[in-house]
Amino acid sequence: MTDAAQSPLGKPVAYGRGYDSKLLFPIARAPNRVRLGLGATLPFHGVDIWNAYELSWLDGRGKPVVALGEFRVPALSPNLIESKSLKLYLNSLNQERLGDFEAVATLLANDLSAAAGAAVGVALRPPADVTGAAAGAWHGESIDDQCLDIDDYGPPNPAHLRADGADDDDGEGLVSNLLKSNCPVTGQPDWASVQIVYRGPRIDRAGLLRYLVSFRAHAEFHEHCVERIFVDLLDRCAPRSLAVYARYTRRGGLDINPFRCSAAGLTPANPRLPRQ
After folding, report:
1. Banded pLDDT at 35 (limits 50, 70, 90)
2. Cα separation, 7 vs 24, whole angstroms
């Protein structure tokens, strides 16, 4: 089953006492991509980067171990993984004697890859490795301080997007902290910062901000929102190259950070932004 309505989202759940990979709930990406008018050949590449801040298990002597986890799910995988199911799965490790970091990373990679339908990269770090790490920053100019009247909060309205025709050979990066959408099952708000890097006709910044704000009352998963933004920018502004990267705030010890780009092989960094 891959229907979000059948997932654990929005439902009371009794926590089990042991490891259970069956808790992972995959959701097919294809139906949303069909709604975007996409076929078998996709206009983007990319990855969904998950950061797990509530990850623990027992070592061979029964002593708790804690770690920070980074999971990279390929955008070309047939499935995304529903976030509450991932939290439940990670919590099923809490009372398991699993050994060292390498053993746990292998277990996670195998289980997440099986759910996603493609190889998922897993990296685990002890908290000491990130103690004192400063919040990261993105390349790009903020578009949030424009003095604008805005009254369109959904559904997402690509009619706001336009390019002025002046070709920008050097390209530019644009950043906004005003992206908000809602969970399609629970209706809870999802907050994000978004970075758009492109080369080609210069994108009108007022129209771009109005477009991003038009997601405010929209219900869609994080990954789907980013793919919608990418496709709408491609259709309306015709950039020669394009990358869209959204970093969502944490919920339940997890944050989700989808990245989509026109060029294959790009590996995005994973900077923890101030709101994360």
Report:
1. very high
2. 9
Buried b (16+ CB within 10 A) or exposed e, 94-124: beeebeebeebbebbbebbbebbbeebbbeb
Instruction: List Cα–Cα distances, 115 to 40, 47, 68, 240, 243, in angstroms.
Output: 21, 15, 21, 34, 26
Which residues are within 8 A (CB) of 239 and not within 5 positions of it... i.e. 6 or more apart?
163, 198, 199, 200, 201, 203, 233, 262
For residue 112, give the nearest of 84, 78, 71 by alpha carbon: 71
- CB-based contact 180:146 (threshold 8 Å): no
Residues sharing a CB contact under 8 Å with residue 149, sequence separation 6 or more, in sequence order:
none
42 sits in the region (left: phi over 0; alpha: psi -120 to 50; else beta) called beta
CB of 66 closer than 8 Å to CB of 127: yes
pTM: 0.93
104 has pLDDT over 70? yes
Q: Phi, psi (5° rounding) for residue 48? A: -105, 120
Mention every residue, 6+ apart, whose C-beta is less than 8 A from residue 24: 81, 85, 86, 89, 111, 112, 114, 115
- By C-alpha distance, which of 105, 75, 80, 82 is closest to 93? 105
Cα angle value 141/145/146 (rounded, 5°): 100
Give the model confidence (pLDDT) of 48-76 as tens digits.
999 999 999 999 999 999 999 999 999 99
Does pLDDT of 257 surpass 80? Answer: yes
User: Which residues are tagged catalytic?
Assistant: 183, 190
| Residues 6 or more apart in contact with residue 129 via CB below 8 angstroms | 68
Q: Looking up tokens 């509450």, which residue turns up?
A: 84
